[in-house]
Amino acid sequence: MLFDLEPCSFNLEPVTCYFFATPYASHLTPYDMSNSVPKNQNINIALVCTRGGHFEQMTNLSDFYDHYDHFWITNRNEQTESHLKKERAYFVDQAHFKKPWTYLYHVAPVLRIFCSEKPTHVLSTGSGRTALIPFLVAAVLKVKFIYIDTFSRVHGHSKFGTFLLKTRNKIYSQWEDPENANALYIGPIFKHDENCNKNGESKYIFVTLGTRIEPFKRLLEGVEDLKKKGSIKEKVIAQVGYTEYKSDYVEVFDFCMPEKINELILNAKYVITQESAGIGTQCLKYKTKFVVMPRDYQYGELPTESDMKEDLHYKLEELGYTKVVRNIEELEKVIEAIENLKVGFNFDNSLAIQTLKKIIETGDSSQ
Q1: Of 76, 89, 223, 311, which has the fewest beta carbons less than 10 angstroms from its beta carbon?
Q2: Does domain 2-192+348-362 have CATH number 3.40.50.2000?
Q3: Distance between the two ends of the chain, CA-based, in angstroms?
C-alpha cells in the first residue's frame, strides 16, 4: 500500500514536509500475499533510496528483500508510484546539502515511520538526500544500517558513502577498493534480465534527460540540429523531463511509466543520455548502444559544480561500451561510428545477495 504523507504545520518555506500517513489510492486492488514469497516473520527491512538511479539499483535486489517483510522510504514520482503499488511505501521530499535545513523536515516523518514499522534493519542504496535521516534515526535506535554505494562511482565513493566511511562505518561497494578496509566489495547489484528480446530492426533513437529539475536544452538543441542536417536519419524520441522544449523534428514527452522507458531503451537503435547510471545500466542490460553527454555546471545544467561527479561512464568508455562527448561536434562524430560500440555486459548479483542474506540472518558483515 502507498502512503500519502500529509503536510505538517511547520512554517518553513519553501520545502513541504510530509507527515505519516494516510492510505493512498484505496481503489487499488489489494495485494494477494498468498502467492508471494514466504517471509521471515522476525525481520522487517526498511528499503531507503532516492528516486531515479538509486531506486533502480534497489529494485535489482528483489530476489533478496522479497524473502523478508519490508517497506520503502523514497520520493514520489511516476517511477516509484508505478513500481510500489503493491508495496508498503512512504514518500518524503529530497533534501539537499546546499539547503541543510531541508533535512530537518525528514526527522518527524522518519521517526513516526520507524515507530510504526519497527524495522530490524535498514538497507539503502543512497543517496544521502533521502537516506541521511534514516541513518541517524537507525543509529539512535540501534537498528542495523546497511549501505550499498552506487554503481556509478568506480574510483572513490559518493558523498554519502564518503561521509559514512569518515565516520568509521562500513559500506558495501560495487567496485573493488583495496585501499579502504571499510569498503567491502559485493560486486554489481544489477541482475541479468532474460526478457530483453528486441522487436526487430530499430527505426528510432532515444534521447533521455532523466528526472533532474535543471534544464538541459543544449543537448536537445544539438540533437535537433543534427536531425535537420541529416547526420541523424532515424526518428528521434526524447524524454525531456523538466526541460521545457518543443520541436518539429523531435517527438518529445516529459515523463512516463518506467516500463515505457525500458521499452524505448530496449528497441532503440541507440540511446543518447546524460551521465545516468540508471539509463546506462539499462542499455547494458538490453544490449543497446549508448552515448553519454554529461551535464555542465557552467551552462546551468547542474545545481553545483560538485554534483554528478560520477565516473562510471568513463570506465565503460574505457571498456568500449560507450563514448563520452562534451559537445554536439563530438556527438556527431560518435554517431558516425556508432556501430563500433560494444554490447553484452554481464551482470551477476549473486555475491551481493549472498552477502546481504548473511548479514540479515547471522549479523556477520565480514566477507
Answers
A1: 311
A2: yes
A3: 35
